[in-house]
Amino acid sequence: DGTNRIIIATDGDFNVGISDRSQLIKLVKDRADKDNIYLTALGFGEGNIKDHNLEQIANNGNGEYYYIDSFKEGKRVLVDKMSSTLVTVAKDVKIQVDFNPRKVGSYRLIGYANRRMKAEDFRNDKKDAGEIGAGHTITAIYEITPPGSSDQNKVKSKYKKTDDNKAENKYSDLIDSEELLTVFLRYKNPEDKIKDNANEFVVPLTDSGKGWEKSSLDFRFASAVAGFGMLLRNSEYAGDINCELILELASEGIGKDKNGLRKEFIELVNKAKRIIELGK
């Protein structure tokens, strides 16, 4: 028993040995599924870097992809995050959030465009999903609207009654609950095979009613990162977000910043701000 992981450092332009991407992905996936040998990809180089190749290979190898653009990033991945980079504590991890229609009219997950799966696949344990390393944390941000919105999401929910009686009003088919949402999480142990059943645990959440002024530093910083992502992608949902607001939110949420990563993010936003101003 040990940590069985291959680390590949490359620009992703495979021109020796197996160069066909589909064959390479199949090889990596077979070794991960059958032999529990995982793969982590480190991207190096400029101009010819093939991010999409490396990300696909890492995803199918139950690993992660990192682009190493500096000595600092290399240290972060291979020193500061060594345990989470090399040691998998759970695989095929799936997270599903069930919003209470009495509290939430509609919702939108911000980001994770290449990580989403169909709702009905959540309990299909043969579907491949993500891996979590030791000490690894994940943040997901949802934009929600109050009940009564015209674009209310039509999905199955634990908050809906199971009988087929005709609803007397828009809430009569819902159970009476003060919960805002429930998080469902499914995962397999690192040594489990694809045929094995996943473990599941459930965490309900009730809204505390706290306003923005009482929000955590982590929440404020995460909001800045999400806003920056929407700004860079020219998202139709970005609203009035701009670099000044992002810098304000990030500065409010910088906290102790043990590894200096939040300060580095603020420097990145300042660089983007200067580029945007030069382009006007």
The largest sheet, given as strand count, sense and whether it forms a barrel, is: 4 strands, antiparallel
Q: How many individual domains? A: 3
Distance between the termini: 58 Å
Count of discrete alpha- or pi-helical segments spanning 4 or more residues = 7
Strand order of the largest sheet: 6-4-8-9
Helix and strand arrangement:
Elements: E1 5-10, H1 21-35, E2 38-43, H2 51-60, E3 65-67, H3 71-80, H4 82-86, E4 88-99, E5 106-110, E6 130-133, E7 141-145, E8 181-188, E9 199-205, H5 217-232, H6 243-252, H7 261-278
Parallel strand pairs: 1-2, 2-3
Antiparallel strand pairs: 4-6, 4-8, 5-7, 8-9
Helix pairs in contact: 1-2, 5-6, 6-7
Brief overview:
The protein has 280 residues and is α/β, with parallel strands linked by helices.
Describe the structure in your own words:
- There is one protein chain.
- This protein folds into three domains: 1-86, Rossmann fold (3-Layer(aba) Sandwich), CATH 3.40.50; 89-207, no CATH class; 213-278, no CATH class.
- Helix content is 30%, strand content 20%.
- It is built from seven helices and nine strands; from the N terminus they run E-H-E-H-E-H-H-E-E-E-E-E-E-H-H-H.
- It has a four-stranded antiparallel beta sheet.
- Helix 1 (21-35) links the parallel strand 1 and strand 2.
- The mean pLDDT is 85.
